[in-house]
Amino acid sequence: MTDLALPKQIPNWIDGKPTWAEAGERFTKVDPATGRDLAEVCRSRAADVELAVAVARRAYPAWRALTPVARGDHVREIALGIQRRADDFATIVHRETGKSRKDALGEVKAAVEMGFFVAGEGRRWYGRTTTSAIPNKHAMVVRQPLGVAGLIIAANTPIANVAWKVFPAIMCGNTAILKASEDTPGTAWAVAKLAHEVGLPPGVFNVVHGFGEEAGAPLVASEQVEVVSFTGSTVVGREIARVGGARLAKVCLELGGKNPLVVCEDADLDRAAESAILSAFSNAGQRCASASRVIVFDAVYDRFRAKLVERVGRIRVGAEDSDDFGPVINLGQLESMLAAVSAARAAGAKILTGGERITDGAHRDGFYMAPTIIEETSPDQPLSRTELFGPITAMYRVRGFEEALALANASPYGLTAAIWTADVHRAMEFINRVESGVAVVNGGTYGSEPHMPFGGLKQSGNGMREAGTEAMDVYSDWKTVYINHDPSVT
Ligand code: NAD
After folding, report:
1. How much is the pTM?
2. Interval between CA 298 and ligand 1 midpoint (Å)
3. Which in 90, 92, 202, 247 has the greatest CB count within 10 A?
4. Is-catalytic flag, 288?
5. In this predicted model, what pLDDT tens digit does every residue of 266-321 receive, in sequence order?
6. Ligand 1: residues whose CB is within 6 Å?
7. How many CB atoms lie within 10 A of CB 363?
8. Residue 260 forms beta bridges with which residues?
9. CA end-to-end distance (rounded Å), the chain
């Protein structure tokens, strides 16, 4: 592959080639680490989305006609290509997001692993066979693709987000249109370019850039798009459910979280503190699975708080490999977090550390938020109930397990949850009763594996799962088959 640097101009990728918006419009992508302009990006509207949909529809019959094994082979080729160019992809992710190259490389490797897993699923596209009440009749259930998949993603882990949607969508036999996040257009563009160069037929994987209401909404509304898979905020997810639901499209929603990490009195406090810090602050807290609520037993609260505050004092914020986390993705995001912290302060919350923008030296023009720990905020305050999607977490003091569990569950969200305890029975009670799609014992609230399903309850999703074999349920449907192999016998 020739050039995999982040281009200064980023077009759409449609029908195997770069394509600019019909109206010629562009927007500017800003570098979150410096506040400087990074690239000019194609600003798509409904007409551009229609073109991509028409192309994907045209490519569908031939792609669908390949065996799942052959489609899996294509996915494997893409994953191998990304692996070969891992450093180049990491550089693009690093430049677009401001996260360190080291963290970006970790994310690239996760995307490759997802590719390998999904490629293997091509050989495990299992259906079911069963008996029939009728002699000489065979009954079975097989999977079938849906058609055109409309994929809409967030910016927080850009290449992983592409991999989690595009790989299962195309392996299942659909053709795809990815509406990349306006904050990370380069990563999606580079994956599409690479996929083309390693032999993916034109039109199977298309990328459109642009803003949500201009480029995302037409994709959701298109009658030609059979499945919409969305990763993003709950407020946008609700709108997508409404529009997609009205036309009876299949809709997969992976939404926000307000994830609790519970620390019991018998926990290994040092390891729990390390885990809470990583869960709350790694990737600048821009994880749907970040620990934004740390619920601590009264008996160890003061000691645990001291450990957290001491560790936060050692966190280095910046875009280099020696730093712990980088900027947040855009200025709007930074400003909304600052507003949320100041509203919490006004309502009586105590800011233990951080709470402000970092503006010294190299941070001056970037979108850096200091790692922030808040306490004495009540569970019904907006800060306790609203996802902030940044390096901000709140601590809550509880008397014991029942109170911790009740508080963990007192949330509109239900994505992930973690408990730190040495008590097996208590851990099992937590696993059984916590209202979340993921439950972790003695670990962080984040960190999913490609072969395991991921998704949430309540306002964190709509019952679908990404990754794992369960992802194939999003992008395929069942066909019940009866074969009467000797119709003369009834
Ligand atoms: P967002 O909802 O603002 O945007 C996500 C995507 O949706 C973007 O590509 C955006 O352009 C598009 N969009 C916006 N409005 C749209 C509309 N009306 N129609 C169609 N598309 C539209 O979210 P964000 O701030 O970019 O991302 C952060 C959110 O993503 C957080 O809530 C986070 O928890 C969530 N997230 C969830 C998961 C998960 O797997 N559950 C993973 C990562 C991020």
Report:
1. 0.97
2. 36
3. 92
4. yes
5. 999 999 999 999 999 999 999 999 999 999 999 999 999 999 999 999 999 999 99
6. 152-156, 179, 181-182, 211-213, 216-217, 220, 231-233, 236, 239-240, 254-257, 288, 387, 389, 415
7. 18
8. 293
9. 60
Burial of 322 (0-12, 13-18, 19+ CB in 10 A): exposed
| 254 among known catalytic residues | yes
Residue 165 contacts residue 178 (beta carbons within 8 Å): yes
Give the Å distance between the CA of 96 and the centre of ligand 1. 17
**pLDDT tens, residue by residue, 55-97:** 999 999 999 999 999 999 999 999 999 999 999 999 999 999 9
Of the pLDDT bands very low, low, confident and very high (cuts 50, 70, 90), residue 490 is: low
Structure tokens at 326: 């980088």
Over residues 176-202, the pLDDT tens digits come to 999 999 999 999 999 999 999 999 999
The tokens for 423 are 């008590």
What the block records as the tokens of 208 is 């459109």
User: How many CB atoms lie under 10 A from the CB of residue 299?
Assistant: 13
Sheet holding 26-30, edge to edge: 9-10, 37-42, 26-30
CA–CA gap between residue 476 and residue 171 (Å, rounded):
10
Classify residue 54 by burial, with Cβ atoms within 10 Å: 0-12, 13-18, 19+: middle
Tell me, in angstroms, the distance from the centre of ligand 1 to residue 140's CA: 38
